Amino acid sequence: AKERGGGGRLEIYAAEMHATVVGRLELQTELRQALADGAFLLEYQPVVDLENSQVTAVEALVRWRRGEELEPPETFIGPAEESGLIVPLGEWILREACAKVAFWRASDWDIDLSVNLSVKQILSTGFVETVSGVLAETGLPAEVLTLEVDEEVLLENPGESVERLAELRRLGIRLAIDDFGMGYASLAHLRELRVDAIKIDPSFIRDLGTDGTVTLLTHTIIRLGQDLGMRIIAEGIERPEQLEQLRSMGCGHGQGFLVARPMVAEGVEALLGGSSIPL
Ligand code: C2E
Ligand code: MG
Ligand code: MG
Ligand code: MG
């Protein structure tokens, strides 16, 4: 009976695993179809200069229109990476965002663009050519584009990733480390990966002012960035006290629900007239 019980448990595991595998395959088929159908869309979250509250950039954030639902990236970026779909999807995201921002700039709005990259894209064949091709097609100057990577790029084939990113940087594109402070040995990574900007992880901003260590660490990251000539962007600003504290620490830029939520292109265009947000 004991053995049968064990076997039964195994069968249950096998059935669950089968369900998971089937579910994942179905999701991947659905995602591939979604890309073909134009079911992805971009939202843009403003980034402001904390000194004068001017919108200096937008970060493109992908969503999936799945029936009535608008799926957040957490539900599909992982599976898209697993299946390799992230490569064509990422290219679509880049082209769409660059075209939109080139259009806004042509309407005389001086604004920069940030786009998130997955390490799978960086390591894909011809990635640097893809990026320079998109810039040429859309007419967006390389200096306007920041590509955001997280510390994960230094885990999978770091030599190759660092080389590709350096090539992009030689084109004039800027690089930012996303979610800075979350990964392992963040400071050491700044030696290998030359970046122009650091985005401080929201977990730091959340505990600003209430956790002494976090407050000190945040201040240290800001000063370090200044000393290294990097742009510092605080992510996840939700409360006025956090904003005030960041300003007093000399943090250059900020992003978060208090400043502005991610919004569709039309929402950004509504800001076009007066590009300063009352803060
Ligand atoms: P991320 O690049 O760190 O993007 C910031 C995330 O924080 C966004 O979530 C944004 O909506 C959210 N956020 C901004 N301000 C606040 C705030 O004040 N409070 C809180 N609680 N959240 C805030 P989102 O759009 O769901 O994106 C999640 C992650 O998915 C991104 O993190 C990024 O890693 C990934 N992602 C998004 N778009 C893309 C993309 O186009 N390509 C790739 N490869 N990854 C993407
Ligand atoms: Mg990001
Ligand atoms: Mg990230
Ligand atoms: Mg982040």
Automatic annotation (TrEMBL):
Top-level lineage group: Bacteria
Ranges where the EAL domain occurs: 24-276
Secretion signal, residue range per the UniProt entry: none
Name assigned to this protein: PAS domain S-box-containing protein/diguanylate cyclase (GGDEF)-like protein
Lineage of the organism: Bacteria, Bacillati, Actinomycetota, Actinomycetes, Streptosporangiales
